[in-house]
Amino acid sequence: MPELKTKRPYQERFLDNFDRAQLRRHVEAVPRKRFARLKKKYATIALGATLAVGGIGTPLALVQQRTESVQEERQRQDEVPLSRALAGDIRAAHSIARQVAGGVEAATGVGSQLETIAEAPQRLALVTEQVREDFFKTEVPFGSIIYREAVKNDIRPELVAAVVEAESQFKPAARSGAGAVGLMQLVPRTGKWMGAKDLTNPVQNITAGTKYLRYLSDRFDGNETKILAAYNAGEGNVQRFGGVPPFKETQNYLVKVRNYEKEYHSRVESRVVDATVGGGNVMATR
Fold this sequence. Notes:
This protein is an all-alpha fold and 286 residues long.
């Protein structure tokens, strides 16, 4: 070990690996002002050592806190566009909700009108039937009986009236050369079959004749051409010829009935128009 020299600088002596006793003696030999400088220097080194080793949790916590602050700031910056997008979606949703609410309010406002429109066909059908009933009761001979029996047997009253007019021209006492009697020109056997005792009685005759039309309607599946042909020429002939028989009388009869029926239908339709469009009272002619 080299010889101890008191005059050597402190740093050099320290590097010579002095033991503690030697270091103490040299420290005590240093003047007080120099010692104060060394004390300050060692204090700085000690503080640095404490921060680097013993107190590492404190700087790491500070670093971690700073790191988290930076991350939070970045996250806030990243969330700004997303928040704006969400805000736009919310505004759009509110706009849609307002439109739906407006639609509901509008629908509620016109609810009565929609209901009226929906009920229009039923109302028109009711008015039409009222007009038809009134027409037959006031414009057609024996029309009240014709309308009542037609409705009862699910036959159009225009058709029943057309048959009556074609058969007898509304003459209760009319008779044919073939023995047909009354308004609907029923032969006694058919009249009796349908429940009539006196075919000259308008009520019994129309009641029996309308029932017979109902029977023929069921017999020929509602085919009115066959129904009328059978009423005039007999159902046997319609079956035999598979439709309208080649009889001139029957063919003319079909044309006549159809024309009368169209006329009744046209007159009823005209009254319906007057009652619905013109605002007339459907019961005014009673």
